[in-house]
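Q: What structure does this chain adopt?
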Amino acid sequence: MTPLQRQFALKEKKMTQKSIAEKLGVSQMCVSDEINSRPISHRIRGAIAEAIGEDVRLVFPEYYFRKPKRRTSRAAA
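A:
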């Protein structure tokens, strides 16, 4: 999902950033940062995904489905 899709999905579920923030005891800005792909915490991402009703890996695929990093070292083992 893109940040815009996350915001729309929350709106469809009648959930606000403020309600998620209050539930977790964090600031609304922390929730906003997660929605907009500025990573803060897995716990906040999980709460956002739960509010949307989707698996956290589908809501935030950029954190969970990354390509493996290319090896740069060719040191002999």
